[in-house]
Amino acid sequence: MAVKVEMSPVEIKNKKPYLEWGLTEKEYDFISEKLLERLPNYTETGLFSVMWSEHCSYKKSKPVLREFPNRNERVLQGPGEGAGIVDIGDNQAVVFKAESHNHPSAVEPYEGAATGVGGIIRDIFSMGARPIAMLDSLHFGEIDNAHTRYLINEVVAGIGGYGNCMGIPTVGGETTFDECYSGNPLVNAMCVGIMDQKDMQKGQAKGVGNAVMYVGAKTGRDGIHGATFASADFADDRETQRSAVQVGDPFMEKLLMEACLELTSQHKKWLVGIQDMGAAGIVSSSCEMASKAGSGMDLTLDNVPQRETEMSAYEIMLSESQERMLLCVRAGFEEKVKSLFKDYGLEAVVIGRVTDGNDYVLRHHGEIVTNIPVSSLTDDVLEEPSEERKPERITQAESLSNWIPEFTDAKEILRKLLVQPTIASKEIFTQTYDSQVRTNTVVGPGSDAAVLRIRRTNKALAMTSDGNGRFVYLDPFVGGQIAVLEAAANLIASGALPLAMTDCLNYGDPNDPEIYWELHQSVLGMSEACRVLNTPVISGNVSLYNENNGEAIYPTPMVGMVGLVKDINKHLTNIFKNSGAKVFLVGNTRADFAGSEIQKMLTGKISGMLNAIDTEFESKKLFKLLQAIEAGLVDSAHDLSEGGLAVGLVESTFSSDVGLDIELKTMKAQDLFSETPGRFVVSVTPEKVEKFVEIMEDDCMEIGETTAKQKVHLKCQNADFEIQVAEAQKIWEEAIPCLMK
Amino acid sequence: MKIAVVVFPGSNCDIDLFEALHTVCGAAVEYVSHKRDNLDGFDAVMLPGGFSYGDYLRCGAIARFSNIMPAIVEFAKQGKPVFGTCNGFQILTEAGLLPGALKQNDSLKFICKTVSLTVENNQTLFTTQYKKKETIALPIAHADGSYYADEETLAELEENHQVVFRYAGENPNGSLNNIAGITNKAGNVLGMMPHPERAVEAILGNLDGLRLFKSLLENGKVTTEEAVR
To answer: Which PANTHER family match (chain A) (predicted)?
Structure first.
């Protein structure tokens, strides 16, 4: 095989290949003139182009991300490591993070989704935690064409294929459908782990002379420039970008996870630091580990296990082959580590040493192919102030009055809402995920939040992942507030105290001032809600450039939140338990139709402004409800979201033995479908009503009771109808399977 | 006297079996590595679910060549209890300890849900605490669970009452004769696709699997003592 001749530094300066790799001319000049005071060679230019991509450097989003609160009394590890860590008592901690794999999933949906799952799992066990659950937030185009069906089938199969084989249950998430995602689906995966606090690890390489060890799968040419790929817009020629997508091997990762967990839990003395080789492969993991410890590093690339021949230094460093980890091992313990990994059938190889100072030195075929300061890759990236401008559509919407639905047949509207894909049952997808393996899943997919017991304690963890691009598109600030409130409400409905959150910020091209404004405003809204709820952002990920042929997706921040159920016997689901219980609506209902499911269904689009949210007021109400749930006063609780009250009431009867008799004296038929956030349907046994109302005060309204009749009777000022539970459940269950045919 | 839970590379329901037997039933249980070559001191062997060797090539096809397998075959020949669920069932068929094979589900998809089963034979080591023809519910979680055997073998299975569990109502994977679990002719080796170990605790919403382990503990005379791990 002929060896490709790489461009010389002068040729690079003249031919500017770095432009294709995502580096700008201004950045290149800054690197050569200010940082290195010489022209970078081919390998070095490649390192800068990936490390300075948005995916690795957050150069565009950093100023905005600083808005997020990320500390409180429970946070043990905030952003900056593989994942965030939160104290849950009993010397245990919960570890979680979410990551997007949008671009790879658009190009190669099965492997894109699968490797997204694989990557986020490595982030969790790199912290020393045992992954216990996966969630996923998926956003696709409308299910009206073969390509979208293909994307959905393959993404869902990829998530299941990886998680099922790993033996990590996929327990929750969301799937929504809107035209804006058709060319650029969103695939956000969240992993939750649990650990003893004494096993906490860091991705650091400190101690001169300590070994840098490579473990896991061999390095191939797959995924080169994946990080850069994730930081660029899509055009229709994206099929040619397929080589930037990696291929996953969950069996290899299962072995790697078990080996790493044995190392982190049983041989702490051997290990200094551990980090996943994720985006930008060896380069990002090694220079970040050196940077965090203030060390230098000297690596010999000939020692990197390779599965292809004649790989160049550039290819070895930038490869995003999956299932690899980088370790910093205390000098003298290398053989012990090798033997531990060999026991699992895995290779562990010393590829370099920690050095004094700040030099990042790479050797290949006896030559020094890179010699640059560590900090030039990790710290010196040019943060560019971005222009912001409020979109014209929002200025216009502010001057118009909001849309109010008009209809005559409320029952027909309800039936139609139940079959909207965003509302309809997602069981066709979730039943392809093993949601029970490890036998901790108390509440699996389909409820407001998943609940997993913590073995050998009386506690449980509740978790949810949520995002509503429609609200954020119409009003980024309020939409951001709602995204956080909604996640917290999901946890509280399950009986959990919200602890902290992670996010995936999915937006369009940040060089567009309107999109940057959306990003900034929504992060401000989210941050405000986080402060009020005391749910700091402990980890996260930014996915910009989600565009297809110049059309951006809705700005879609995904919020992943984890909560603590103090007494597992008090956890709740959304399903009514017994007949004869009193049904309450918690929270006031306003005319909130902008961005609602009924608006999209009746008008074919979304429009209008969102009503302002008083997060202090909302938070007080949420915590009152939690107090009532923790006191054992509530039988079931369901957070109302898409479709509003009528849909929420009907959903809570599914697969139960009860029906409903509801009378809403203060409401008109349209109010049944309003999507005012921060509302719940809860059921309370009659003898507990008094205590319940004492806690909730005027934040709740009794609206009826559960019956033994298997039908839902809804009466308001100008509508009075009945729907059979079995009939409603049937159309809700069959809607998506029918569309997927 | 104790139970072995065999751990192959890629097994992932090993912990579920261990916890069901040890924490819930109080039995003495030990994880046994695929590298071991004997089952000395064990009274029963359990093969867990999961994806042994990544299910590469064919589910269970590589695991049957692992170091521990000759010991398991010998153990079975001696008439001692051998149990395999899901991937464990697939390994038992690949190893020839049970007849037939598990094909890909008719839907071509992985399916995780609770299904209804009829207990067809309550005279095995594993099922005496169930009633004959009792309907129970157990979770399934597999992509390759469609039981297949030639007509002659099927007839023999039915004739000898080797079909222990049958899907009641909807057949989730297209298995012949709605087969969900079978024993060998001697009745000491049971393989089944459903996961009884996922249905042994009220907090997880299902107790129908508990009696399988209790039957074995009672019939297999497995003493309860402190677990090793």
So the answer is: PHOSPHORIBOSYLFORMYLGLYCINAMIDINE SYNTHASE SUBUNIT PURL
Out of B15, B19, B111, the one facing A431 most closely (by C-beta) is B111
CB within 8 Å: B49 and A344: no
Residue numbers of the domain that contains B164: 2-219
Q: What is the pTM of this model?
A: 0.96
In B, minimum Cα distance to A249 occurs at B54
CB contact under 8 A, B12 and A433: no
Q: Which residues in chain A have Cβ-Cβ distances shorter than 8 Å to B143?
A: 164
Is the Cβ–Cβ distance between A46 and A6 less than 8 Å?
A: no
Domain tally for chain B?
A: 1
CB contact under 8 A, B12 and A431: no
Query: For position B205, which CATH number holds?
Result: 3.40.50.880
Q: Which residues contact B202 (CB under 8 A, 6 or more apart)?
A: none
DSSP code at position A2: P
In this prediction, residue A234 carries a pLDDT of 59
Q: Which amino acid is residue A214, in one-letter code?
A: Y
Q: Secondary structure of chain B in the HEC alphabet?
A: CEEEEEECCCECCHHHHHHHHHHHCCCCEEEEECCCCCCCCEEEEEECCECHHHHCCCCCCCHHHCCCHHHHHHHHHCCCCEEEECHHHHHHHHCCCCCCEEECCCCCCCEEEEEEEEECCCCCCCCCCCCCCCEEEEEEEECCCEEECCHHHHHHHHHCCCEEEEECCCCCCCCHHHEEEEECCCCCEEEECCCHHHCCEHHHCECCCHHHHHHHHHHCCCCCCCCCC
Cβ–Cβ contact A434 with B under 8 A: yes
- Interface residue A731 vs chain B (CB under 8 A): no
Whether A694 shows a pLDDT value over 90: the answer reads yes
Query: Averaged over A87-103, what is the pLDDT?
Result: 97
pLDDT at A458 > cutoff 60: yes
- What is the residue whose two structure tokens read 């490595």? A122
- Taken in order of first residue, the domains within chain A and their CATH numbers are 202-381 (3.90.650.10), 406-424+572-741 (3.90.650.10)
Lowest-confidence pick of A78-82, A534-538, B192-196: A78-82
pLDDT for A551 beyond 70: yes
